[in-house]
């Protein structure tokens, strides 16, 4: 089964005449761990925004989990995203006025489906994820702004993983870490995805990481708009 399927996807921002993205086709199968690479400005974040339903394609289709995601109404997309998609943002987007555990449990507050998919209590699952991601449990009740960047990264990952989402999207989440820390974090992330049978789409410009993944995709190779804009 394909978790992600794009067909004749085109996207440009309002008032732009040229497409930023023009992707004839792209598919990612269930359980795959895919590395999506591309230089700054190539449209990686715009593609992720489309896959999360935050923006809409100019034309073409986005199917997620065999559902016509891009044709859904905004409220339907919001519900679908809450139920099925975990997202690790580049800047983590953690809520500074909440504790570590309250940040992790947010997806289960917004999605009964994610809540039902937790084995045992939500607090126990949050602790298990933190332990697997090598974050000390004494951090649980601490405010986010008291954590290091590496610790915040692990909280963001635990928040995205809780409730076993079918798709995990990671947008340059390791950009603030040194190379050894990045590789170690990705290995931990992959182990959790493997356990939950979660499909991982990991976006980065750091090509030294791509050998860790099942498959690597260069956005410039699948995006016709890049070639057309060069001509």
Structure explained in plain terms:
- This protein has 231 residues and is α/β, with parallel strands linked by helices.
- It has nine helices and eight strands.
- Strands 5-6-7-3-8 form a five-stranded parallel β-sheet, sandwiched between helices. Strands 2-1-4 form a three-stranded antiparallel β-sheet.
- The longest helix is centred in the last third of the chain and has 18 residues, at 179-196.
Features:
single chain, 231 residues, alpha/beta, five-stranded parallel sheet, three-stranded antiparallel sheet, 8 strands, 21% strand, globular
Give the low-confidence spans: none
Distance between the termini: 37 Å
Instruction: Give the overall average pLDDT.
Output: 92
What class would the helix/strand composition place it in?
alpha/beta
Main sheet, how many strands, which sense, barrel? 5 strands, parallel
Number of helices: 9
List how many beta strands DSSP finds: 8
Topology order in helix (H) and strand (E) letters? EEEHEHEHHHHEHEEHH
Q: Based on CA inertia axes, which overall geometry fits?
A: globular
Tell me the fraction of residues in β-strands, as a range. 15-25%
Rg:
18 Å
What percent of the residues sit in helical stretches (DSSP H or I)? 25-40%
Spatial order of the strands forming the largest sheet? 5-6-7-3-8
């Amino acid at each position: 089964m394909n978790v992600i399927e794009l067909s004749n996807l085109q996207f440009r921002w309002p008032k732009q005449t040229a497409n930023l993205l023009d992707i004839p086709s792209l598919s990612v199968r269930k359980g795959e761990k895919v590395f999506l690479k591309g230089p700054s400005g190539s449209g990686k974040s715009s593609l992720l925004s489309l896959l999360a339903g935050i923006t809409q394609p100019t034309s073409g289709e986005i199917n997620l989990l065999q559902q016509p995601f891009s044709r859904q109404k905004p409220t339907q997309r919001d519900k679908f995203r809450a139920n099925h998609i975990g997202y690790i943002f580049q800047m983590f987007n953690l809520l500074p006025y909440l504790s570590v555990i309250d940040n992790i449990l947010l997806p289960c507050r917004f999605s009964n489906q994610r809540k039902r998919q937790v084995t045992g209590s939500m607090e126990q699952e949050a602790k298990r994820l933190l332990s697997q991601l090598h974050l000390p449990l004494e951090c649980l009740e601490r405010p986010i702004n008291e954590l290091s960047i590496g610790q915040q990264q692990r909280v963001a990952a635990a928040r995205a993983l809780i409730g076993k989402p079918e798709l995990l999207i990671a947008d340059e989440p390791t950009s603030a870490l040194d190379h050894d820390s990045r590789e170690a974090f990705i290995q931990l992330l992959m182990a959790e995805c493997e356990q939950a049978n979660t499909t991982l789409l990991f976006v980065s410009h750091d090509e030294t990481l791509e050998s860790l993944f099942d498959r690597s995709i260069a956005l410039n190779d699948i995006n016709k708009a890049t070639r057309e804009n060069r001509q």
